[in-house]
């Protein structure tokens, strides 16, 4: 399991094992501002790739189906799109892809189920997208965690994860919203504060950073209506999930 | 709607409107034996792209959801994977992607619902994958249609479709099986006969031909176990669906 890992770095950049479609098509070059240069990720055969998060990650998955690489268990979102493409292009890796996102989750919800739903699964690659409910539920009066609580509890979760899984490749996804649907001016500037905290936490944890907000902003700047990518401003359409999957693969290098 | 169409050809090859990711990555060059050279498909904004077929196309879709581009309505298979990628890469086209595959369907089942589930939807691009139940149900003693019945009824369905939708881009997908699970020696050589009939019917209808069997055969020849692509020999895994989506896009040129 450790044969491919670089001892010269505490973070998850490894020597090249295979080239990726994303890199080959130049998709990677469209990503700027990420924490790490894009390069292929080396990963040991049989490794577990785990997606964690809220409803955006959950994406309608069958939570009664624990099996890896199972269509219904992967949901209908970016984890499924990413898994299907990676599994098709790299059959020799025999990867085990799991989705454990749960709709409505905030950082404290991840904390409460982290041992069973993350650490016990022993992922080699862990991707986390969390934060939109931490503000949304606060705006709705159902939660009182401040941006600082989000930052500090998220950082503590990553610290706990690093200690339990020291060789982990950690991928933190940028929380994002589109300015439509449920997302109105009351979300700002607090959402920006939280987004910046997520990036800070990712950097301090030596995680790869997947700039979803940046990519959606670019897509909207290109002339597409925000609701083309997320009808309610929060939950992506299939097009939005595909943009996320492409961005994720370009950053992670698989 | 007809501005992009070439009057010099009765089939659906149009002048280039946009380049495709599949072409750019060289994926197209891996496809040989298709009926048409790979080139970008020109398609008018707002066009309907319809996927038709059996359970492989259905892939767990919500049949109570008729909306285009809807995650649950698209299912968990190659139509979803294709739709998500195409919608993300070509937002300016404003495509309406529909899935009307129904589990268990054979050619006569398509015939019975063709007016409502195909012609009335006025697709600009129609993709059909049908044939595995036509033999499977016969092997199980639940149906008595011969390969010639499959060929002739499939051809008649396409003729009816061409007459109703003369400007249609027609895409016929190769029926395929993997040699594992439910697929044993009793399927052969009849399955090969039916597969060849499908190709003949597609050619006579001036359809694009998507060589799924050929691609799966290549994948298995590359050293991957057949059940990696379709656990029961018939229904693809996420990896299998992704291979199909990549193949489909490379041939169709979108």
Q: What can be said about the biggest beta sheet of chain A? A: 5 strands, parallel
User: How much of the polypeptide of chain A forms β-strand, as a percent range?
Assistant: 5-15%
Average pLDDT across residues of chain A?
88
**What is the largest interface, and how many residues per chain?**
A-B, 36 and 36 residues
Question: What is the strand arrangement across the widest sheet of chain A?
Answer: 2-1-3-4-5
Provide tags for this entry.
five-stranded parallel β-sheet, globular, disordered N terminus, about 10% strand, about 250 residues, 11 helices, homodimer, alpha/beta, about 40% helix, Rossmann fold
Description of the molecule:
The structure is a homodimer of 254-residue chains. Chain A is of the alpha/beta class and 254 residues long. Chain A has one domain: Rossmann fold (3-Layer(aba) Sandwich). Chain A contains 11 helices and 5 strands. In chain A, strand 4 (169-173), helix 8 (190-204) and strand 5 form a beta-alpha-beta unit. In chain A, helix 4 (78-89) crosses helix 11, helix 5 packs parallel to helix 7 and helix 7 (147-164) packs parallel to helix 8 (190-204). The longest helix of chain A is centred in the middle third of the chain and has 18 residues, at 147-164. The first copy, chain A, is globular, with a radius of gyration of 17 Å. Chain A starts with 20 loop residues before the first helix and ends with a helix. Chains A and B meet through helix 1, helix 3, helix 4 and helix 11 of A and helix 3, helix 4 and helix 12 of B.
């Amino acid at each position: 399991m450790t044969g491919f890992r670089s001892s010269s770095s505490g973070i998850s950049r490894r020597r090249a094992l295979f080239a990726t479609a994303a890199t080959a098509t130049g998709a990677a070059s469209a990503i700027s501002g990420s924490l790490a240069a894009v390069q292929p990720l080396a990963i040991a055969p049989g490794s577990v790739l785990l997606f964690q998060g809220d409803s955006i990650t959950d994406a309608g998955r069958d939570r009664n189906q624990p099996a890896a690489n199972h269509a219904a268990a992967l949901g209908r979102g970016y984890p499924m799109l990413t898994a299907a493409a990676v599994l098709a292009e790299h059959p020799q890796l025999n990867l085990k892809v799991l989705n454990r996102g749960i709709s409505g989750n905030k950082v404290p919800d991840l904390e409460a189920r982290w041992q069973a739903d993350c650490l016990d699964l022993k992922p080699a690659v862990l991707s986390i997208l969390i934060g939109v409910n931490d503000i949304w539920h606060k705006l709705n009066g159902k939660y009182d965690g401040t941006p600082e609580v989000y930052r500090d509890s998220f950082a503590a979760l990553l610290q706990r994860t690093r200690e339990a899984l020291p060789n982990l490749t950690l991928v933190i996804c940028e929380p994002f919203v589109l300015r439509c649907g449920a997302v109105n001016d009351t979300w700002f500037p607090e959402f920006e504060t939280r987004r910046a905290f997520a990036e800070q936490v990712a950097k301090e944890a030596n995680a790869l950073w997947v700039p979803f907000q940046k990519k959606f902003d670019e897509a909207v700047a290109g002339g597409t209506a925000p609701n083309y990518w997320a009808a309610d401003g929060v939950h992506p359409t299939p097009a939005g999930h595909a943009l996320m999957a492409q961005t994720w693969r370009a950053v992670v290098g698989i």
